[in-house]
Design a protein that fits this description.
By secondary structure, the chain is mostly helical. Helices cover 74% and strands 4% of the residues.
Amino acid sequence: MEYIFLLIIGLLAGTIGSLVGLGGGVIIVPALLFFSAAHILPTISPQAAVGTSLVVIIFNGLSSTLTYMKHKMVDYKSGLFFFIGSGPGAMLGAWVNQHVHMHHFSLYFGLFLIAVSFLLMFQSRFSPSKKRTFPVVRTYVTNEGEEVTYGYHPFSATLIAFVVGFVGGFFGIGGGSLMVPAMMLLFLFPPHVAVATSMFIVFLSSIVSSMTHVFMGNVAWTFALSLIPGVWIGAKCGAWLNRRLKGKTVVTLLRMVLILLGVRLIMQGLGL
């Protein structure tokens, strides 16, 4: 029964995470803690929930990345460049997770995510590429047949990726909750490319940050092995849905997930 329950959690996490580029940890961590507290699942500590989530997210990121690769939606060069910052950030975040009281940080981070979701409402005002020039420039043809130009500044991109990796390692959410909005708002990535490339970065970052938790003994392997099959299938479902949605729809879904995640973190920070 527990196996089936975890399989369903993994399926939902994989689908939602891959659909909007968040990695799935936003579902896994709170679900494990909630159902553990409700005695539906065996008891698990917050650190073990985070560590288990990051191990599972590796397979979520790999499954969705392989699917997005087939449709040439992953910007590998940009993804690897962002990973230069997010990899060390993820390791530091996983280490700091052991030494920081998370309540106040959860509250502020939740408020920040809700603010980001509202910023995405005005994404179109940020998008005209003529107003910005980037040292590194990319182009992409959207599902609607429109050619979009985007890019980034190497130094600022590395710095932002480091912060994103730190947050992902700290909360066990893969970092996509910040990476996707940052790509769209700051570097004008098209929504589909931002999501696909984010999952590629999430895959790489999760390998690094999960290793830290594995060495610290913060992985519930029974939970992880039960979650992985559902996450693998869900990631493919999420990537399939993403390819069939318009860019605006992807942004709307991302905003909804960010708001829900923000509310959950605020409640966690307030001890509710």
